[in-house]
Amino acid sequence: MSTWDEIILVQSEEEYKAKAKIRRNKAENKAKAKASKQTSEYKTWRQNYDARLENKTKAKTRKQTSEYKTRAKDFADENRLKILQVYSKRLSNSDVPCCKCCGKNSHIDFLSIDHIIGRVEMNSVPELVNLGYSSKLHPDSLKKWIVDNNFPKGFQILCHNCNTAKGLKDNNNKCPMKNKPH
After folding, report:
1. pLDDT tens digits for range 91-137
2. Are 153 and 90 in contact (CB under 8 A)?
3. 98 lies in a domain?
4. Beta carbons of 100 and 92 less than 8 angstroms apart
5. What's the CA gap between 13 and 25, in Å, rounded?
6. Inside any domain, residue 181
7. What share of the chain in percent tops pLDDT 70?
8. Does 108 map to a domain?
9. Is 132 a member of any domain?
10. Lowest-pLDDT range, 52-66, 72-86, 161-175?
11. Which residues constitute the domain of residue 111?
12. Beta-carbon contacts of residue 178 (< 8 Å; ≥ 6 apart)
């Protein structure tokens, strides 16, 4: 589209808005609009609309409270702990959350949930996609998804060091510490 076409389009839009304003301000059209707002259908629609709008506003306000944020964080932490325990038990045969690669279990804050074949690559696993997996899931949403889907295969627990090392380009998705004495 050329600049000239854009100018004509803008002028047409401006002209349209001006004509619409004139039409709305005519006495007969104002009377029709007022009459349509008196119908029971319109009143019902407006009440439902106002209620939905009020609920959205309340929910948005509630999510901004410190109490809500604290509860959400506690819920995410609870899910994270469940995930650490289940995958550590399943993959490392350990009752204590630990890194599958190096076995470190000094503190759970140093452990992470790892996508075994890679976060984006997991988008091509049909079993996970059918369950609703997406690499675009927010970390808290991912934790909830894992728990809700009964801890599906494809994830493991690694310490941040092993997880970072595994993710480095030259390491080809493998931790260099795997199977080495520590």
Report:
1. 777 778 988 888 888 788 899 999 998 888 888 999 998 999 998 99
2. no
3. yes
4. yes
5. 18
6. no
7. 92
8. yes
9. yes
10. 52-66
11. 66-171
12. 101, 102, 162
